[in-house]
Design goal:
The complex is a heterodimer of chains A (about 400) and B (about 230). With about 400 residues, chain A is α+β, with helices and mostly antiparallel strands. Chain A has two domains: about 5-50 and about 265-400, no CATH class; about 85-255, no CATH class. Chain A contains twelve helices and ten strands. Chain A has helices at about 5-15, 20-55, 90-95, 130-135, 160-165, 210-215, 235-250, 260-305, 305-315, 320-355, 365-390, 395-400; strands at about 60-65, 100-115, 120-125, 140, 155-160, 175-180, 185-190, 205-210, 225-230, 255-260. In chain A, strands 2-3-8-5-7-6 form a six-stranded mixed beta barrel. In chain A, strand 6 and strand 7 form a beta hairpin. The longest helix of chain A has about 45 residues, at about 260-305. Chain A is elongated, with a radius of gyration of 33 Å. With about 230 residues, chain B is an alpha/beta fold. Chain B has one domain (about 1-225): 3-Layer(aba) Sandwich (Rossmann fold), CATH 3.40.50. Helices cover about 35% and strands about 30% of the residues of chain B. A six-stranded mixed beta sheet of chain B has the order 6-7-8-3-9-10, with helices on both faces. In chain B, strand 9 (about 210-215) and strand 10 (about 215-225) form a beta hairpin. The longest helix of chain B has 16 residues, at about 175-190. The two termini of chain B are about 25 Å apart. The chains are: A alpha+beta (about 400), B alpha/beta (about 230). The interface of A and B includes residues 16 and 311 of A.
């Protein structure tokens, strides 16, 4: 039998048995679409997080107090036990390491910020002028913190755009005075919406000079120090040097953790890849279920067409040809079902993408290939048993329509 | 040339051994027109199935055109069926979702003939049975007589030497039955060996050789002159 004829005969019987075919298509399509959508979500989450991190710059080193073997997650989580303060002098000393381009020390606290009658509680970040560049922030109005010595305590602040518009509903925030905690600060700038920072909504922060913040919060230790390198290749060397330098300053004790952006990123990558794999596994179960449904329906088809099988044999069909005919139906169904599933999956991705534009939704290639392969394979595997049952029918018995 | 030598076909039904064919010997020459009659369960359908290689005899020999068939495997049997034997059934056995043309094409599809050749042969066959205007109708759009003529076209399209008809007029009215018989007989007139299993004396009487069966055995085997 020629291949084209095989396909023609198989598709003819599928078209004729419309309801049964549509049911199997739907089952298979749901399975494939589930794989596509779920892996897209996992992959999208991974890309989203990766994108956020990469926007911070891959040449970023983060120092935080406390020793931890774990890398990744929010570095601040491990800052609970601090054996020794990470001071402004520590930060300043890092600038002497060759290859270091910028450092931005960081302290964070949450205090009420008020202007006139209006007040709200927002994260207050104490840092230096370098923070603007390190975090790729843009100014909407005015200027960022002025460059200068770390110890200089200045009563100036920069507002996030949302803080600015809420505290100054009439718009004129530049040059005005706000109360942060017990002190008064002059507003010298408003942040733009561009730039990223994991864990913070940049529209809802207030930035003040680092030494002012340490006084305001009454703390002696920095929360983190961010370091950018002049070139990426120097990163491992700088990481070593930072560690050594701080150990020397802390009486030989290695009580800080230095992580690269890459290390954090790699951890997130692993977590999200595992998540995506898990989702793919769960979705594959529905593919397996669809396969069993195909077997079930094909068995019914074989028993409905018993006399036809007998006729085929009387016309000189070999057992293998009968097997091929039924198998072709099952495989064709699962293949078309898989294609429908892909279409549905991509359509769902598109819809979700419209609702959550921030999530870059696209299924990983391996998941798409795997879904189609599993779909076709289950067509073959679960189609084989009914097909062979048909091929083994005794022609005389089959022609009589009995089984 | 069909030659059965002491052929038997036994079925085990529960405790009982049913001898559907009991040591039957029968020789049918090329171009003969044979009717096979007998009560239900006399083994006439089994005889036809054994001759058509759909059923394997439990014992004895069966030579088709001088070739021993009992030692052939399933694929070889399928090949012989495809090229030497045509079947006609009481219930037509057309594939309901295929058109008349496609039904006639089916044996050629199974034998891997090319589409152009299939078209040529199927059209010739349908034309000779006055079915050209029905070629693209499906079986449910055809009358009984038309369906059986499509079945004849399908049986003949591979140009077999033997045509086996099991109650070919059993589901047809008198006029359609006569048409079908006329079609079969015209094929026989061109040299096809024709075997007709029937309950109908009138149908049987048209054959030139009459075999009667009972309990798996041939009880009479008579020849008559040409009909007329």
């Amino acid at each position: 039998m020629r291949f084209a004829d095989l396909l023609h005969l198989a598709s003819e019987s599928l078209v004729r048995a419309r309801l049964r075919s549509v049911m199997m298509l739907v089952a298979m399509a749901i399975g494939v679409a589930a794989v596509v959508v779920l892996t897209s979500l996992g992959e999208g989450a991974r890309r989203y997080v990766t994108g956020e991190f990469q926007a911070l710059g891959a040449d970023l080193l983060i120092v935080f107090p406390g020793r931890s073997e774990t890398t990744g997650a929010q570095p601040g989580m491990f800052a609970g036990e601090t054996p020794r303060d990470l001071t402004l002098d520590d930060a300043r000393s890092l600038l002497r390491i060759p290859g270091v381009q910028r450092i931005a020390p960081l302290v964070i606290g949450s205090v009420p910020v008020s202007a006139g009658e209006l007040s709200r509680e927002v994260p207050v970040i104490g840092t230096t002028s370098e923070f603007l560049v390190v975090r790729s922030l843009k100014m909407a109005q005015g200027s960022f913190l002025p460059a200068g010595d770390l110890d200089r305590d200045m009563a100036v602040c920069v507002l996030g755009s949302k803080v600015s518009s809420e505290l100054f509903p009439r718009g004129q925030s530049l040059g005005a005075t706000v109360r942060i905690g017990e002190r008064r600060f002059r507003v010298i700038g408003v942040l733009g919406d561009a730039g990223r920072s994991i864990g913070f909504d940049l529209q809802e922060i207030v930035v003040i000079p680092v030494s002012s913040a340490m006084q305001l919060f009454n703390i002696g230790s920095l929360f983190r120090i961010m370091i950018t390198a002049r070139e990426r290749d120097a990163m491992p060397r700088i990481q070593q040097a930072v560690r050594a330098q701080l150990a020397e300053r802390h009486q030989g004790e290695e009580d800080v953790t230095v992580v690269t952006q890459d290390a954090v990123l790699a951890t997130f990558n692993r977590i999200f890849t595992a998540l995506t794999l898990t989702l793919a596994g769960i979705a594959s179960i529905s593919l397996g279920v669809a396969g069993i449904l195909i077997m079930n329906v094909m068995l019914v088809a074989v028993s409905q067409r018993t006399s036809e099988v007998g006729l085929m044999k009387a016309l000189g069909a070999r057992g293998r040809q009968i097997t091929a005919l039924f198998l072709a139906e099952a495989v064709l169904l699962s293949l078309v079902g898989a294609c429908c599933g892909l279409a549905v999956g991509y359509a769902a991705d598109w819809v979700i993408g419209r609702v959550y534009p921030a999530l870059p939704l696209a299924p990983p290639v391996w998941a798409v290939v795997l879904a189609v392969l599993i779909a076709v394979a289950s067509g073959v595997i679960f189609g084989l048993l009914p097909a062979r049952r048909a091929a083994r029918l005794d022609p005389v018995v089959a022609l009589a329509g009995r089984r | 040339m069909i030659e059965l030598r002491d052929s038997s076909r036994h079925f085990q039904v529960g405790e009982q051994l049913v001898k559907a064919l009991d040591s039957v010997s029968l020789s049918i020459g090329d171009g003969e027109y044979v009717s096979i009659m007998g009560p239900s369960g006399s083994g006439k359908s089994t005889l036809l199935n054994v001759i058509g290689l759909l059923d394997r005899p439990s014992g004895g020999q069966y030579l088709l055109d001088g070739r021993e068939t009992t030692s052939l495997d399933d694929d070889e049997l399928a090949h012989v069926r495809a090229h030497k034997i045509g079947f006609i059934f009481q219930s037509f056995h057309l594939v309901p979702r295929l058109t008349a043309f496609e039904n006639v094409e089916l044996p050629m599809v199974l034998a891997s003939l090319l589409p152009a050749e299939r078209r040529r042969r199927a059209e010739a066959m349908l034309a000779s049975l006055n079915l050209m205007d029905r070629a693209h109708h499906r079986p449910d759009q055809l009358s009984g007589g038309q369906r059986q003529r499509v079945a004849i076209a399908r049986a003949m399209v591979m140009e077999p030497t033997v045509l086996l008809a099991d109650e070919p007029t059993g589901n047809l009215d008198h006029v359609s039955g006569a048409e079908v018989l006329a079609a079969l007989e015209s094929l026989n007139a061109r040299g096809i060996t024709l075997l007709v299993v029937t309950h109908d004396d009138e149908v049987a009487a048209r054959a030139r050789r009459h075999v009667r069966m009972r309990d798996g055995r041939i009880v009479t085997d008579e020849r008559s002159g040409p009909p007329g």
